[in-house]
Amino acid sequence: MPELTGPTLPTPPRRTRTAATWLATGAAVTAALFGAASVPATAAPTAATAGPAAARSAAAPDISVADVKAHLNQLQSIATANGGNRAHGRSGYKASIDYVKGKLDAAGFTTTVQQFTTGGQTGYNLIADWPGGDANHVVFAGSHLDSVTRGPGINDNGSGSAGILEVALTVAKQGYKPDKHLRFGWWGAEELGMIGSQNYVRQLPAAERAKIDAYLNFDMIGSPNPGYFVYDDDARLEGVFKDFFAARKIATEIETEGDGRSDHAPFKDAGVAVGGLFSGADYTKTAAQAQKWGGTAGQPFDRCYHSSCDTSANIDDTALDNNSDAIAHAIWTLSGGGGTTPPSGTSFESKSQVAIPDAGAAVESPITVTGVSGNAPSALKVVVDIRHSYRGDLVVDLVGPSGKTYRLKDSSANDSAADVKTTFTVDASGEVANGTWKLRVQDVAAQDSGALNSWKLTF
Ligand code: DTR
Ligand code: ZN
Ligand code: ZN
């Protein structure tokens, strides 16, 4: 959006978080050594040999808000090292493109950098395609990566850029195989009037444009005094987001101030169905909105909009977390419930149900693996089926035969959704495959409980 001028405002007071201390990182696959918990063993599982055992993961995985914030910290460092901004035509913008591209290339995306010129300066769009899926049906998520010249642009729009980046990287971590083709875009020169996204849409042949089933735009998703606004340009896409927030009991409003004010506009003008999320800019939060969303009435959603104080301190973590999870929900939902990369080889499964005590000791479920030669793979698939009324209470670990623990899922104060039914991918190449593996689950917060229904290892 054209750069607006106005007073530089002090950084707003940060919203206090709930008192509970929680681990907010998501499904890490790095190994962390924990002490063994003393818990009763359960009945021996049945070993099952199977061919491809694709686990259809209809539910999107939790997006690690810690990982999203790590990207924001990188963008902040880039701005700090490049004159304080990441604006079009400045070194900080190209450095931002290089950072995002490097992450995606390493994760297996097919990336393209598209150049354009505006204001006498070279601009860049970054497009990343996840290999596979029906190329005639594209689900497209985009965010502008440029800031205004006055500041680092961490909420506007590092937040959207980091949110879709972490969703893309989670697609790769999960080995997600969607029915439709996934594409992600990071746009240049949005602040000059959506120049980068206009350039992309204009150069796209009509036949390619027609293949885009949905373009989802995320421009400001972590505002410090946040609102939860859903674009209402397309009823189907609006419904996907509203369903997500309803399940988390978060009220939403339709986004009304942004028509034409961000990168969804060129796609909509070209006849593409568009949707998206917005947490608010320089408009003032009303008392009614503060009643349902918390925060401060009478103050802007983002007092540092287009200002030098739009730094990494200018983010509400809860809004960033909820909106990043909403992006993943939309991507998984709209791309058809494809499974993860179908694991081939031998599977070992336990169907012994194990009760998970509320705020209690960790419980374990063992699987004894035999007949697999050598070490476990670097992409060991762990399919987990846990019934629970508040999955944010749960910490889930895989314990290898050596006793080494691999963190699959941390607890999260903000993940109020039910159940953990997903496939984790773990680098367990340091473990000998044969031996007793254990899934360790602990409920670390009061008021909700559940049970492990089953879990499966595929080598
Ligand atoms: N155009 C965005 C900020 C913005 C203002 N209103 C809306 C509504 C919907 C999306 C974005 C916005 C910018 O300054 O980058
Ligand atoms: Zn802006
Ligand atoms: Zn923006």
Automatic annotation (TrEMBL):
GO process annotations (BP): proteolysis
Alphabetical UniProt keywords: Calcium, Disulfide bond, Hydrolase, Metal-binding, Protease, Secreted, Signal, Zinc
Keyword Calcium carried by entry: yes
Family of the protein in this entry: Belongs to the peptidase M28 family. M28A subfamily.
Cofactor section: Zn(2+)
Subunit field text: Monomer.
Primary location group: secreted
Pfam families: P_proprotein, Peptidase_M28
Localization per Swiss-Prot or TrEMBL: Secreted
Secretion signal, residue range per the UniProt entry: 1-43
Residue intervals passing through the bilayer: none
Name this protein carries in UniProt: Leupeptin-inactivating enzyme 1
Location of the P/Homo B domain: 341-459
CDD domains in the record: M28_SGAP_like (cd03876)
Organism: Streptomyces cinnamoneus
A cellular component term, taken from the record's GO annotations: extracellular region
One GO molecular-function entry: metal ion binding
